[in-house]
């Protein structure tokens, strides 16, 4: 006699087998409008694991030259794990999946002169032949269309402070609701309203998972935000299984895998960072800074008020997320064999 649970897993195995079979049968097809770096194209053609990376973090998230150096080091960490990094940006109106080191250097030097590119900006920049550095939302859109389901970064955008009246809710959150890409990050910075950010992610149907056993949702510079994650997983293997269920089910929504900053790097930041965030928030209010400039303004002020200490923590956690993202991508590949 067939038990209910075994018939469920048989049905699921058929479903998984079919969808993987279909993918293998047709192979990966490059997007006709995208330019893939040779390294990324080879990996996708061979069905090898790839991790997407954003470029706003380079132009608007860190100062030059640390931005370029961090980007190079993060890519190297991913390669050392046996995974291919794909940094995504728009250059002269073309979507690039995987950048050369001179392209990263160019973006890093331009900094905020490059357009911070969320979903709404993509078609416009392409039509006008301009350059754009993609945010979490912009990178998710393009990674998904390029065939890359896993993306590592520092922190996601969220509901801003007083978001309930100014309606400043990052496009990252709605993108997570509509695009099946898993974003590996260190949570959301306390420049944001983290409680409302978690509420909004639930509204959007986004799975939010803290990796490593802690129940706390991390707040970027600190391992805990004071809010609990709606769910947890032990390790990259379990995260990969969750991603595969999301794929098999065809839910079409994104996932957040929140990795707390390593203990030693949290200690380095200290209470100074929170004081700097509070001061930066007050300055933004006094100056009336709004819209897409507020996040870069706050990031800059926090970096300079802590005299680079927050930047060191920032860089450390991005590298850690890259390591975890690569492990998740590897585990997903193994499970698909
Ligand atoms: N948070 C950071 N570093 C960053 C960003 C956020 O700690 O670089 C960037 C990311 O690209 C993110 C974007 O997607 O800011 C969110 O901007 P906004 O709040 O305007 O949606
Ligand atoms: Mn905004």
UniProtKB/TrEMBL annotation:
One of its GO terms (cellular component) is cytoplasm. One of its GO terms (molecular function) is pseudouridylate synthase activity. Keywords: Glycosidase, Hydrolase, Lyase, Manganese, Metal-binding. The keyword Nucleotide-binding does not apply. It comes from the Eukaryota. It comes from Piptocephalis cylindrospora. This is Indigoidine synthase A like protein-domain-containing protein.
